Amino acid sequence: MPAPLVTVVVPVLHDTPALSALLAWRGDHDDASPAVAWVVVNGDAADASVASLRATHPDVTWLDSAPGRGVQLGEGARRATGRWLLFLHADTRLPREWLQEVTLAARASSYEWGCFQLQLDSAAWQARLIEWAVRLRVRLLRLPYGDQAMFFRRLTLERWGGVPPQPVMEDVALAITFGRRGAPYRSSRRAVTSARRWERDGWWRRSARNLSLLLQYLLGASPDRLSGAYQPERGRPVAAGSTSKER
């Protein structure tokens, strides 16, 4: 059986409701194409709530690993067989035409990576402004983030060092590595991501904090130290597949 075109890798940590909703969405939008394989990497093997999802989705490859989004994505990438890897947060939804977009990137030898446009699931005008700023950032700086469903040629990713095994900012590290070598395929299709943390923390406060953390990282701050700034609701550990670093 030929290898799939794309392996979708979803890292999760204590985020079963979001993962359940994602897999239900997949059932409605992904027609079990042989071009697509799905891998879920759970950062807590003792989380019994994932067991029922494993039973109801046997076509998904289920892996356990140490927690940390970079570690989990790296484990999924090593087990993937697709020619391309798409890293997907559990509370991000791909556009209906996502597979066609990755196929277009794959057919163009000039592209080694790509991303979708960001769309927040909020009607607030602040959401539209943030989306515009993200489009500008990607176009000028070649710096998409993980909540834009970034995708990579698997062999190129392996050749350039794989996914950095860090708890946060692994998406920024990947964008910097790949961006130095070429522009991403910028899909005009939109990946829809939850805006709940912006709505909870305040649009400008959340955005300012995220920008501050990005600048600290670019200036050399340790991802391990920065990970402590991502405080989810009620003090629970940050879900590896959530948009804990929403912009």
Helix fraction bin: 40-55%
Strands ordered across the widest β-sheet: 3-2-1-4-7-6-8-5
What is the domain tally? 1
Which percent band covers the strand fraction?
15-25%
Q: Briefly, what CATH class?
A: Alpha Beta
Unreliable spans are: 232-239, 243-247
The counted number of beta strands is 8
CATH second-level architecture:
Alpha-Beta Complex
Order of helices and strands: EHEHEHEEHEHEHHEHHH
The CATH homologous superfamily is termed Spore Coat Polysaccharide Biosynthesis Protein SpsA, Chain A
Shape: globular
What is the average of the pLDDT values? Answer: 90
Number of helices: 10
Distance between the termini: 40 Å
Structural class: alpha/beta
> And the CATH topology?
Spore Coat Polysaccharide Biosynthesis Protein SpsA, Chain A
Radius of gyration: 17 Å
Largest sheet: 8 strands, mixed
Fold blueprint:
Blueprint: E1 6-12, H1 16-29, E2 36-42, H2 51-56, E3 61-64, H3 69-79, E4 84-87, E5 92-93, H4 98-107, E6 113-120, H5 125-141, E7 151-153, H6 154-159, H7 170-179, E8 185-193, H8 196-201, H9 203-218, H10 223-227
Parallel strand pairs: 1-2, 1-4, 2-3, 6-8
Antiparallel strand pairs: 4-7, 5-8, 6-7
Please give a quick description of this structure.
This protein has 247 residues and is an alpha/beta fold. Helix content is 41%, strand content 18%. It has a single domain (6-235), classed as Spore Coat Polysaccharide Biosynthesis Protein SpsA, Chain A.
List the keywords.
eight-stranded mixed β-sheet; 8 strands; alpha/beta; single chain; 247 residues; Spore Coat Polysaccharide Biosynthesis Protein SpsA, Chain A
